Amino acid sequence: MTRTVVRASGLTKRYGTFTAVDAVDFTLEEHRIYGLLGRNGAGKTTIMQMLTGQLFPNDGELEVFGRTPAEHADVLRRMCFIAESQRYPEDFTPAHVFTSAPWFFENWDAAFAEQLMSDFRLPVKRRIKKLSRGQLSAVGVIVGLASRAELTFFDEPYLGLDAVARHVFYDRLLADYAEHPRTIVLSTHLIDEVSRLLEHVILIDQGRIILNRDADEVRGSATTVAGARAAVESFVADRAVIGQEALGGLASVTIDGRLDQRDRILAAELGLELAPVSLQQLIVHLTGTELDADSTEQEVAA
Amino acid sequence: MTATAAQPLARTETRSRAHEIWRIVRLHTVNPSIFFGVPWLILGGAWAVSMVLAVIITGSGAQPDDVGDGMRYSWAVLSPQWYLVVVGVQAVGLTFSFALGFGATRRDFWLGTSLMFALVSLLNAAAIATLVQLEIATDGWWVGTRMFDALWYGQTSWFGDFYATFAMQLLVLFVGASVTTVFMRWRMRGMMILSFGAIALALAAVALVTLNQAWPAVFEWFGSLGLGGAFTLVLAMAAVFAVAGYLVIRRATPR
């Protein structure tokens, strides 16, 4: 039995005439790892800021742990969200952050935090203003992991992290998650880096949710078909095409939906190559084509 | 069915409000240079300059008493005052965003910050009032300088100086913090409206008094307040800014 931790319906945030988040509906279940994916400016951070009571929605309903998050201490204390662009008090160092963290997070594990500081080789006495992008990301990652909050957000955790640090994050997150299950939301545009971690994917583009599915389902849900143009075209004729490329007599088309045994035999007979689409490729197709369509419309309008 | 966590995560209300407010005070003091270090460094620097000046002037043959009288008009004792405006601004501009990230509510943040302001003003006021008495007792730190025993300081009692310092420090901290809440809630547009509104209000007041030829009456009223009355007025203004800041920050959003 799982509990629903977050329930949003029609959630909307507007800035003047710009709609950052446009009537989105979703739920987050307890003890799962969610990927909140999308391009820069898609509305990922705005959604997380509303979930953590930092921003007030303009419209819609939002329940976190059963009630509106903003200004409710009993809800807020169960969450941890260090934004990618988090501001810190004047002249703060990572040491100051980790000293004050246990006052705010009741499940804080100081020994774990200590371990992570050395894993990430974080200079804890250096001013936060002087940290590199990767070191700044490490501060947020350490707070997120060691706080063990029931609902933890990681905002662009991979930004600027080197290969070793990315590996440390991946390992520590999975190990600690197994020991202390909680709901985790990873927000990022670096999709390949996190795709293996995710159990559920929520893809947003221009303030709307365009995909909200189990990660395993998403991984097998699209296929690229490549081969002679005529053969490809006949194969994909009555299928949902989400992307296509052509070069001379060759074509490569990405289709949505699973292929069954008969489809695979047919493709082999036509001499077509079938390739699985990675999460990243799928998302580029889903969010990139939309962009193309928009720009064509604008050209037509002009 | 999911695995059971090592400790039950669903906790009921066990911690009191006082804890949530006190942790904001601790957050403000985790880096003590902001509220204590820099203001006292400024005051210490001003004190050192006053000492050197007094030694130079006395060394050039001036009468120590005349030096002391001249330095009565020095504003050095108020030097940390202006920096505290910046401290107030940063408390909301930077620490507020951080505290929200750590799951504090706006309400608790403002109450905790107000408590911090009160504690800082209390400590600074006690220290400065004591330094005034020390300066008088040592006859200007044995070189005839006058830094703390200046302006309206040293005229009444230890408590008089304490009260004046407490009220003024509280006012500048709350002015800095509450004006910044306007920015955090309405951004640049709010700041423009606030500053133009304040200027318009000030001009209207000047016009009203001038057209009614009421300046003598206004000065008379100020004079009748006396030192104690004037600083009670300052304290009341600080309270107004504190309440206004509380109302504005309840819907403010971090950057």
Automatic annotation (TrEMBL), chain A:
- One short Pfam name that applies is ABC_tran
InterPro entries in the cross-refs: AAA+_ATPase, ABC_transporter-like_ATP-bd, ABC_Transporter_VariousFunc, P-loop_NTPase
Superkingdom of the organism of origin:
Bacteria
Q: Name one GO molecular function term.
A: ATP binding
Q: Which UniProt keywords apply?
A: ATP-binding, Nucleotide-binding, Transport
Residues forming the ABC transporter domain are 6-231
Q: Which SUPFAM superfamilies match?
A: P-loop containing nucleoside triphosphate hydrolases
Its name, as the record gives it, is ABC transporter ATP-binding protein
Which species is this record about? Answer: Agromyces albus
Automatic annotation (TrEMBL), chain B:
Q: Which keywords does this chain's UniProt record carry? A: Membrane, Transmembrane, Transmembrane helix
Q: Which domain of life is it from?
A: Bacteria
Q: Establish whether keyword Transmembrane helix is in the entry.
A: yes
Asked whether the UniProt record includes Transmembrane helix among its keywords, one would answer yes
Q: Please list every transmembrane segment annotated in the UniProt record, as residue ranges.
A: 34-62, 82-102, 109-132, 162-184, 191-215, 221-249
What name goes with this protein? Uncharacterized protein
Which organism is the protein's source?
Agromyces albus
